[in-house]
# Entry
Amino acid sequence: MKSFIIILLIGALGFTAKLETTIPQVRKSALTLKANEGKVYYRNAPYSGASVSYFDSGRLSSSSHYMDGIKNGTSEKYFEDGRISYSANYKNGRLHGSSKTWWRSGPLRSSSHHINGIAQGEQKQWYKSGSKFKIINLVDGRESGIQRSWRENGKLYNNYEAKDGRIFGLKRANLCYELDKEDLKDRR
# Structure
């Protein structure tokens, strides 16, 4: 009898059942926004699940997740060729975590971070070519620390520090004068 119980116990421990939870999914066009509440509804109730939309070709155009009518989770948009164009995370209807955008040609366009809807930390942008465009640092949505921008040829044209609402350094650098046959000319 003891060996029967032990075998039964071992069998029960060895048995694993995979539980899958399915997230309800509806077309974005089936949702109704109640602007005065800031919530989306499906069949007269705040919607919890994923909303999707499609291009005429049948490819996925966008996908967003909601909880109790408010964006919560991943939100993504796609180009018609199927490549991703936008990805962001939401928490209680506000951007929270990483957000990224891509150029149609494929390279990353921007990368940012938010906490409860407010931009925080290093925010980056790139040109279509993939060259750096801008790196800014934010604290509570305001510039703080070293800020830099480049022209597409790689030349730095903004390089300043933001501190206590003031700016120290080079901002929108353009030469005021140019040389023409070694003579100084005013460019204005």
